[in-house]
Amino acid sequence: MTAVGGRRLYVLDTNVLMHDPTALFRFQEHDVFLPMVVLEELDDHKRGLSEVARNVRQVSRFLDELMAGRDPREIEQGLPLPAPGNGGDGPAPRGRLFFQTRVLDAALPRALPGHKADHDILAVALALRDRLPETTVVIVSKDINLRIKAAVLGLNAEDYRGDKVLDDVSLLYRGYRPLPPGFWQRQGSGLESWSEGGRAWYRVRDPEAAAWYPGEFVYDEGDGLELVVRGHEDGATLLELATDYREGGRAVWGIHARNREQGFALNLLMDPEIDFVTLLGAAGTGKTLLALAAALAQTLDENRYREIVMTRVTVPLGEDIGFLPGTEEEKMTPWMGALMDNLEVLAGGAGGGSWGRGATQDLMRSRIKVRSLNFMRGRTFLGTFLILDEAQNMTPKQIKALVTRAGPGTKVVCLGNVAQIDTPYLTETTSGITYAVDRFKDWPHSGHVTLQRVERSRLADHASEVL
């Protein structure tokens, strides 16, 4: 292979392709190099029904398409990567894909013994750096230890950033914002207001309001006014007064909002025009309780949905306890402790003593189905209130596979805490729920709220701050 001036040469680790099969096409005008040991590791992981195996098979299909009809000389000179995959429309610069076609020897320190695949990648990168002094050679890996070893050897190494939604999770859309100072005074005589369906509506013309997202909440700290953005038309922003779900206002299955963010969440959960809701927050902020209360109120009281389906990613906190007996629902029961805990809270307000509470809990359980994510592909949910718990452990691809199961009359609610990710190679900025929040924020039939305050107990509130 020959160096191309001004370009970088990215040496990919196997875990990058296992994590994102499209990583081959995400390096813009720069070149990509695949060591032979990476192809061997891909071959070792292609069998099975896991997400990793499916990704590996997709990588193999991509490589087969790129190599179709090529002779060995073209492969030696590098295969051109498609420009659209590099994130550009039109005649964008294209990188090339190189394979290791010969032995590339480089002396590794004696402190790196054995024949580990990581060491082979390091040796290839060192040999490429020596052979191509005018080219910047960079190892791209999700493995922190490999990146550390590369830095010790004087090699450039980076984490794979092609799947990052944001540079920092603090930049993630929160779903609400305070009204800017002097907002109402600036409106003057141009402010339009009216009442429709028992609700107060406002039409404002303000440059700051033009940047608000549909479904976003705005509030006034001074008088407690809370509004939801309903859209933009003819240079104006349409605002609707939010429903008050705090103590003294409307209740949802006996539950009142304990803070502003919980009230915003209940507005989204109870709105029939909102089809997709994401709730982020630390443990104890009320995500599951609010979602279940809204689901029961709209399924049992209003008959808006036929059933409630709840599922979650089965990633254990500690050591896996092995296979579980029983049917699909019985196997999922140990993972649904949060469901059972919240059902007890929701049934606690029922009259009739312990018998009445037990009857109410049985009724609620009869309308809630617990399902495994492993059997979601190919299904279509009709008239369903679908709750996905622990969504921070899902990849963007898994989130897409689940949300596209929604049929007519279905509402999908994703709950998660990006500070508690247990899936390898996922971070706060690459999690599927982060991806969903960012991609859906412009859609008027979706909404998001980041819950801030822990309402579980003073012990839980203090622990979330100091531990």
Automatic annotation (TrEMBL):
Keywords: ATP-binding, Nucleotide-binding. The keyword ATP-binding applies. GO terms for cellular component: cytosol. GO terms for molecular function: ATP binding. Residues 8-148 form the PIN domain. Belongs to the PhoH family. It comes from Inmirania thermothiophila. SUPFAM superfamilies: P-loop containing nucleoside triphosphate hydrolases, PIN domain-like. It comes from the Bacteria. PANTHER family: PIN DOMAIN-CONTAINING PROTEIN, PROTEIN PHOH. This is PhoH-like ATPase.
